[in-house]
Amino acid sequence: MKENIILIGYMGSGKTTVGQALADKLSYQFLDTDAYIEEEQNTTISHIFEEYGEEYFRNIETKTIENMEININHNIVSTGGGLPLRECNGAILKKMGFVVFLSVKKETVLKRLEGDTQRPLLQGNHVEQNVEEMLNFRNPIYEYTAHIKVEVDNKTVEEITEEICRNYQIMIKQDEKNEGGVEE
Ligand code: S3P
Question: What is the pTM of this model?
Fold first, then answer.
């Protein structure tokens, strides 16, 4: 397994905050697919959605992780909440490293993202109902894509990063054992 940690999960699950804390703890470099896309495209995600539509944005996401997969080593990657929805993306993420699903409850999302204007999928009326429907649809996909699931509600950033690091170390050790072959 490549030594990177990939964070997936719904908007407001804390991927960026936890990702930065993990990067500090492990002395890894932090990457965020949304920030990467905004820099590359020289515009905002909202503008890309508005101007070219969601499908266009999803194509950029796939290209972004295809490029990252080749180049990264000792990185923490925070991904956009919809990125794992394409099956081909899920496979790329698994090749990139240890995939962690940050699982979050609807109530926490609504509290954290109240008044948000940056996320196109959380605008308009019926936000609560939309979040609930999206979580119901996406959660099984996040679970299927990840190596582990970490529940984030009512935990500190420190507790979450420790839980991830503990599991990451186990995974690395397991991997080293497997690569060493079976002892006679
Ligand atoms: C999206 C999540 C956003 C961003 C875009 C679409 C989604 O990223 O990629 O607005 O489909 O859930 P965050 O999860 O970082 O907010």
Answer: 0.96
